[in-house]
Amino acid sequence: MLTFANHISDIGDKFSPDLLAPAYLKELKELCGLFPFDISADFGFESRLGDPAPFCDFFLEIREKSEGAAVLAGKSRISSLSPSLLEDPAWQKISALFSEWTNPGSFLEEKVFLFWLEFDFVGPGYNPVPNLFFQIRNAKGMTGPDQWSSMKRVLDEMYLILFGIRFPDDLGHTMNRSILELPKEAFVFQFGLMLPRKTEAVRLIIAGLDTKHLSSYLDRLNWSGEKGVIENLIAKYQHRFDYAVVNLHLGNEILPDLGLELYLKNLKQPNWEPRWKENFHFLESESLLLESKRIGLIGYCGKKTVAHLYKVNYVNGINHLKLVYKKGMPLGLKGYFGTYIR
């Protein structure tokens, strides 16, 4: 029987051993064997580009009204999750969440556009319980109060299903401030619930925020990180990329961490966009990127067609990079790359 592991096998030759070593690729196939062949048409990876350890975290995208959404809700007529997942109490709650999301007319169905399931590699294998990232529909056109109102109700419903409580008031207060203080052009792009991690912090992913307004925004939040470091990063990197997306970590307060996702428009790949290679070499000179990881990322890009019951086209490429700041820690760099199945 085909499983999602077949997709990983089909593109297995695209991974350099420095990007994803054979032993870790085997662990990834074991994880993906728990999911049906058609659960997602888009999947991706996160690699720590300054760390020689050759493993990647793994993502699955689940869009509204997709076969994957039906599978996760237990409503598919043709596919299902592995029995070991169906017996797991954590996955039973995740399935209940997707069941509510796929109920026509439900508030979650109305407001949530898509989910990403992120599986952390924790050694020696992958945690089968994912972090959940989701995107609110039409957030770009909402005012700050409207964004918060929609987000609060969505989070209340999700927390009731997953944890049996409403979204905690202390986290809600922090998030409310973070959203209401956003500049007019900015909006919440995605929100992350870190289910398997031993932390109550959640992640707010902000798009449309002009980096020249980031410093004053952090001031309004009384952010306790080193603002000068962030200003230096912006000065050094913003002209090398077309736009940035900001990651905040929220607990009882705004945590002194920050992620700065860096994008080039139109997802042009290194063969077509010379700035990728220029930026890679600059990041190597800054000791943020290993040469072996650069070679692995570029080697992953390209197209491949495989015949199953029908032809499957895999389009592989780099999505974006992320600078990772944690107060008192060395700056880090992560690379996000993945595959469209068409």
List the helices and strands and how they pair.
Blueprint: H1 5-10, H2 22-32, E1 42-48, E2 57-63, H3 67-73, H4 83-86, H5 89-101, H6 107-111, E3 112-119, E4 131-136, H7 144-163, H8 169-180, E5 187-193, E6 202-207, H9 214-220, H10 227-237, E7 243-250, E8 254-263, H11 274-285, H12 291-300, E9 302-307, E10 311-326, E11 332-341
Antiparallel strand pairs: 1-2, 1-11, 2-3, 3-4, 4-5, 5-6, 6-7, 7-8, 8-10, 9-10, 10-11
Helix pairs in contact: 3-5, 5-7, 7-8
Structure summary:
Helices cover 35% and strands 27% of the residues.
**Uncertain stretches:** none
* Assembly status: single chain
Rg from Cα: 20 Å
Distance between the termini: 20 Å
